[in-house]
Design brief:
This protein is about 80% helix and about 5% strand. It is mainly alpha-helical.
C-alpha cells in the first residue's frame, strides 16, 4: 500500500517539475531536487518490481500518471474564491521541499519495514 502512495507522490512531483520548467528558469536547487527525487523513484520502482506483479505496477503507474496530471491541471486553471486565486502554482513551488521530504521519508520507511 505504501508503494502505491509513493508512486503517486513521485508522479505528482514530476508533473510539478515539468510545469515549473516551462514557467520558470531552473536553478541549482531545483536541479538537485530533481536528481534526488529521481534516485528515490528508481529505488521505489526497484522495490515495486521485486515485490509486485509487473502488470499491477504498470496499471498503478498509469493511474497515478493520469491522476497527477488532473491534479496539477486543476491547480493551474485555478481555484477562485470571490475572484481571487485561492491556490496558485507559486504556492505549490514554494512547498515542494515538503513533498520531497515526504517522499524521502516514505521511501526510507518502505525499505526499512
Amino acid at each position: 500500500m505504501l508503494t502505491y502512495i509513493i508512486i503517486q507522490l513521485i508522479f505528482i512531483y514530476f508533473k510539478i517539475a515539468r510545469v515549473h520548467k516551462k514557467e520558470e528558469k531552473l536553478n541549482l536547487f531545483w536541479k538537485m531536487q530533481h536528481i534526488l527525487v529521481f534516485i528515490v523513484a528508481l529505488l521505489t520502482f526497484a522495490y515495486a518490481i521485486n515485490h509486485m506483479g509487473l502488470y499491477m505496477l504498470v496499471l498503478v503507474s498509469l493511474f497515478s500518471f493520469i491522476i497527477a496530471g488532473m491534479l496539477i491541471t486543476a491547480v493551474q486553471l485555478g481555484i477562485f474564491v470571490d475572484g481571487k486565486p485561492l491556490l496558485g502554482m507559486h504556492i505549490v513551488y514554494k512547498n515542494t521541499i515538503y513533498l520531497v521530504a515526504l517522499i524521502y521519508f516514505l521511501c526510507a520507511l518502505l525499505w526499512i519495514v
